[in-house]
């Protein structure tokens, strides 16, 4: 095989994966993020009033999702590694769709807490499983590009999901139901349907992909096996990885990003709803949905080009640390703007910072881990991120109730993102250290 022919096979293989697998897994992620954040649209549009929720109760309901998610995160990802992504991801989608559907009939604060906890249990393992699945389909040099395409689904969930949710909420009275209840039905049914389709669309390994040619399968299998073999010398067991300092640094870095992500996701619609009192402006439900989505549209564009640069240069420390720094500064700055437009522009910077960093961040674990150890490490990192998701919802709501302002809660968000930037610089000093060496020092 000539070098030119091999380059052509590589290009065609990655292109097919980009078109065949990534959009579908991204669609799954779109539905996933919409389902878990649907409460943020329901809250200020009738649910808070109908169920008599305080800001702290709403924050607890938003965050309690992550308790169930955390408890089953690592076991779920190890199960995916054992049983295969196709069946396991399909199971996760169908189960969370059924639980999400039940929100349409919730009638009490206690019932809301229970369903949010069950939703977290049902969804446990989806996101790290999707990250691991895509990472195992492409060589390391292509992962930044592939993961950035996948990650586009998250900001686009808000760009398209917020107006979509608003449109369903505006159907208030249909079938005798409140608009926010109809919205839960509308976002839940697709999860069940796509979960069934997953069984027929995804394949577990390149050798099972009928849409790859024999030459493409051989090239991809050879590349992935070569990378796996190179890591075998430093391929520790799951227990050893879970005690490794480098992995825990990644956990803490991710904590800061996810704290910021969910503080925005859960409370941005509520903050926009407060513009009327703060600035004397009035927006209807659809206008609020469009305004909520606007910063995330900017974030999607920034993320695409930032990740493209990281893919071209190779992911550098500053591809992750610089966005964390920008986000940490912009979050509290938004509180001192004197108009809705200037406030949303600064929030767009915050959203762009978070999403510019995340896909590049996820290229780090698989740089030095593979197999079950990679599955465990990715799940552990995401577990700590989900601790941040719980903390962001509850702490933001509790601090708002205590101070009657979002100033202190958003200062906390900025502080965590600045901490992520500092820890990323610390991690850069340790990345040059071989994993086997670091394990020897730590154990």
UniProtKB/TrEMBL annotation:
Swiss-Prot/TrEMBL keywords: Membrane, Transmembrane, Transmembrane helix, Transport
Protein's recorded name: MFS transporter
Transmembrane segments: 21-39, 51-72, 88-107, 113-137, 149-169, 181-203, 247-269, 289-306, 318-337, 343-362, 374-395, 407-427
First-listed, main subcellular location of the protein, grouped into a coarse class: membrane
Membrane topology, as annotated: Multi-pass membrane protein
Subcellular location: Membrane
CDD domains: MFS_ExuT_GudP_like
Residues of the Major facilitator superfamily (MFS) profile domain: 21-432
Signal peptide residue numbers: none
Pfam families from the UniProt entry: MFS_1 (PF07690)
Source species, domain of life: Bacteria
Entry's Gene Ontology molecular function annotations: transmembrane transporter activity
GO cellular component: membrane
């Amino acid at each position: 095989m000539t070098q030119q022919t091999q380059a052509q096979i590589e290009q065609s293989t990655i292109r097919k994966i980009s078109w065949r697998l990534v959009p579908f897994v991204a669609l799954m992620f779109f539905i996933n993020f919409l389902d878990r954040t649907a409460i943020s649209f329901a809250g200020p549009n009738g649910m808070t009033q109908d169920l008599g929720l305080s800001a702290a109760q709403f924050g607890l309901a938003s965050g309690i999702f992550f308790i169930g998610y955390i408890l089953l995160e690592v076991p779920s990802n190890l199960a995916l590694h054992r049983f295969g992504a196709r069946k396991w991801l399909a199971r996760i989608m169908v189960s969370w769709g059924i639980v999400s559907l039940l929100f349409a009939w919730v009638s009490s604060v206690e019932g809301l807490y229970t369903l949010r906890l069950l939703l977290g249990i049902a969804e446990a393992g989806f996101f790290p499983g999707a990250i691991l699945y895509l990472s195992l389909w492409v060589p390391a040099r292509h992962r930044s590009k592939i993961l950035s395409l996948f990650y586009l689904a998250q900001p686009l969930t808000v760009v398209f999901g917020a107006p979509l949710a608003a449109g369903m909420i505006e159907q208030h009275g249909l079938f005798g139901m409140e608009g926010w209840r109809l919205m839960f039905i509308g976002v839940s049914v697709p999860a069940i349907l796509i979960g069934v389709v997953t069984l027929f669309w995804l394949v577990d390994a390149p050798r099972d992909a009928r849409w790859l040619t024999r030459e493409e399968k051989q090239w991809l299998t050879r590349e992935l096996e070569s990378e796996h073999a190179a890591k075998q010398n430093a391929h520790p067991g799951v227990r050893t990885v879970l005690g490794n300092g480098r992995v825990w640094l990644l956990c803490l870095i991710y904590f800061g990003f996810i704290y910021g992500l969910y503080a925005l996701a859960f409370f941005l619609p509520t903050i926009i709803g407060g513009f009327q009192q703060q600035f004397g402006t009035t927006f209807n439900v659809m206008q609020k949905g469009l305004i909520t989505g606007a910063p995330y549209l900017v974030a999607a564009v920034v993320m695409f080009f930032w990740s493209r640069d990281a893919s071209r240069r190779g992911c550098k420390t500053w591809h992750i640390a610089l966005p964390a720094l920008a986000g940490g500064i912009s979050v509290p700055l938004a509180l001192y703007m004197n108009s809705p437009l200037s406030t949303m522009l600064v929030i767009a910077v915050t959203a762009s910072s978070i999403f510019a960093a995340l896909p590049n961040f996820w290229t780090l674990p698989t740089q030095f881990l593979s197999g079950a150890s990679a599955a465990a490490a990715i799940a552990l990192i995401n577990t700590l991120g989900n601790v941040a998701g719980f903390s962001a919802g509850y702490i933001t709501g509790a601090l708002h109730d205590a101070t009657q302002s979002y100033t202190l809660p958003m200062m906390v968000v900025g502080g965590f993102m600045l901490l992520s930037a500092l820890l990323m610089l610390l991690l850069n000093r340790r990345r040059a250290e071989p994993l086997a060496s670091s394990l020897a020092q730590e154990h």
